[in-house]
Write a structure and sequence with these properties.
Elements (H helix, E strand, L loop, with lengths): L1 E7 L3 H16 L2 E3 L8 E6 L4 H23 L5 E5 H14 L5 E3 L7 H7 L5 E3 L16 H7 L2 E5 L1 E2 L10 H4 L4 E2 L2 H13 L4 E5 L18 H8 L7 E5 L8 H9 L6 E3 L7 H6 L6 H14 L4 E8 L6 H14 L3 E6 L17 H25 L4 E9 L5 E5 L5 E5 L8 E9 L4 E5 L7 H5 L1
Parallel strand pairs: 1-2, 1-3, 3-4, 4-5, 5-6, 7-10, 10-11, 12-13, 13-14, 17-19
Antiparallel strand pairs: 8-9, 15-16, 15-18, 16-17, 18-19
Helix pairs in contact: 8-9, 12-13
Bound molecules: 5'-deoxyadenosine and iron/sulfur cluster.
The site of 5'-deoxyadenosine has 12 residues, from strand 13.
Length: 456
């Protein structure tokens, strides 16, 4: 059997796309290989969000060129494909810088992989069309064995692309305009996943809460309506969605956090910065107080919800005082977790043209301080759960024999000792200890209490 090695960088959508490309190639007789050595086809699924992510791709391609040469010396042909957002943004540049690359295919064109691979035998190809036609309608369904091999949690793309044009972000250019998959197509996919043992789905999209896919009734369905329907699928016990924009948190979505038991109390809602002048310069179209009010509404609907965000430090022109506004917001909200990044100027985005870029030393100091605050709140959130009863969905083997690992509804990793349980079980667990990256628990008894009972 021919072997393909797929390496995905960046966001969860790339993980999903990588799996779908594996499904396509599976139909072409390729079996997945965990390492590049010995593979006939090597596919890098790339990320363009920050400059460092892009540098990684070229470093990786240098290594793959050497592997290709070494395998050639032993009589094995190795083909190299670059997919994902770097492919979309700088396809011609990739071909110029790395002659070992056979094919460059953008995120909206990968359903054509088989024919492109065929054409690439004759000449090197770049296909970075952002076509209107529906990629998803052309993808083969994953086989039950592939689904099982991927575990009981799965991502499902429901929306792609973005029309928000934040001043720093390449996504509207690399992934194209907002597009929502039709409801029926998503339900078929989730039903198939559930039939092969998936219990936990995360609906993903660059701007997932802007979802407005066509429903079976011909009307446009909101994300909340879609999730209510997904929750009816037998076997699906946990639903999450990511990533969201504050401006698209509609009333029915907030209400779903109160009314839909399968919707987990976790929300990744990036705010990016805490100063209104910077938010305006970022073209976010909301203020810090808008965000505070929104969080208050969400917490009224679901008091125990775990909140998460993305932050950028050192956006062009950000003063020391404006950075302090970000710290203040972090301390006020008390995020359960958050990602933070140094601003990285991206070619073609409006912010990259601004004259007031922040020096790297200042940037490093701000990032360090912000991460210290984020970590403080993450630890506080984790420690607050010690002594509480939570439901754990067991997902994989634990660190040591006799242990299984799973997730709380709040997306924290938990290890428990158990002789009688198996992967896929939902277990009531009392958290006994919070380590730096994992929680540790024991099976609960009848008198243990849940955090939502404590919060109510
Ligand atoms: N520089 C730094 N971080 C960025 N992000 C997006 N673009 C940039 C950039 N140019 C961050 C944002 C976004 C996350 C996915 O990546 O915080 O929410
Ligand atoms: Fe990028 Fe998200 Fe802003 Fe869209 S909403 S431009 S994906 S940061």
């Amino acid at each position: 059997m021919k072997k393909v090695h797929i390496k995905s960088f960046g966001c969860q959508m790339n993980v999903y796309d990588g799996q779908r490309m594996a499904d396509i190639l599976g139909e072409q007789g390729f079996e997945e290989s965990a390492t590049p050595e010995g593979a006939d086809l090597i596919l890098l699924n790339t990320c363009h969000i920050r400059e460092r992510a892009v540098q990684k791709v070229y470093t990786e391609l240098g290594k793959l060129r050497d592997l290709k040469t070494a395998q050639k010396a032993q009589g094995q042909d190795t083909r190299i494909v670059v997919a994902g957002c770097v492919a979309q943004a700088e396809g011609a540049e990739i071909q110029r810088r790395q002659p070992a690359v056979d094919l460059v295919v953008g995120p909206q064109a990968y359903h054509r992989l088989p024919e492109l691979l065929e054409q690439a035998r004759a000449r090197r190809i770049v296909d970075t069309d952002l076509p209107i036609d529906d990629k998803f309608g052309h993808l083969p369904a994953p086989r039950p064995a592939s689904i099982r091999a991927r575990g009981i949690s799965a991502f499902v793309t429901v929306q792609e692309g973005c029309d928000k044009f934040c001043a720093f972000c390449v996504v509207p250019y690399t992934r194209g305009a907002e597009f929502s998959r039709p409801v029926a197509q998503i339900l078929v996919e989730v039903e198939r996943l559930a039939a092969a043992g998936v219990q936990d789905v995360t609906l993903i999209g660059q701007n997932v809460n802007a979802y407005h896919g066509e429903g079976p009734d011909g009307a446009s369905w909101s994300l909340a309506r879609l999730m209510h329907r997904v929750a009816e699928i037998e076997g699906i016990c946990r639903i999450r969605y990511t990533t969201s924009h504050p401006r698209d948190m509609d009333e029915d979505l907030i209400a779903a956090h109160r009314d839909l038991p399968q919707l987990m109390p976790f929300l990744h809602l990036p705010v990016q910065a805490g100063a209104d002048r910077i938010l305006a310069a970022m073209n976010r179209k909301h203020t810090a107080d808008d965000y505070r009010r929104l969080i208050a509404r969400i917490r009224r609907a679901r008091p125990d919800i775990a909140l998460s965000s993305d932050f950028i430090v050192g956006f062009p022109g950000e003063t020391a005082a404006e950075f302090e506004e970000t710290i203040r917001l972090v301390d006020e909200i008390g995020f359960a977790s958050a990602y933070s990044f140094k601003y990285s100027p991206r070619p073609g985005t409006p912010a990259a043209e601004l004259a007031t870029q922040i020096g790297s030393e200042e940037m490093n100091e701000r990032l360090y301080r912000l991460q210290e605050r984020i970590e403080h709140h993450r630890q506080a959130f984790n420690h607050a759960l010690v002594g509480c009863k939570v439901e754990i969905l067991l997902e994989r083997a634990g660190r040591h024999p006799g242990q299984l690992a799973g997730k709380t509804p709040y997306l924290q990793a938990v290890q428990i000792e158990t002789e009688t349980n198996q992967i896929g079980d939902r277990v009531q667990v009392v958290i006994e200890r919070a380590g730096s990256n994992s929680l540790f628990g024991r099976k609960a008894g009848p008198d243990d209490r849940a955090p939502e009972e404590l919060a109510a």
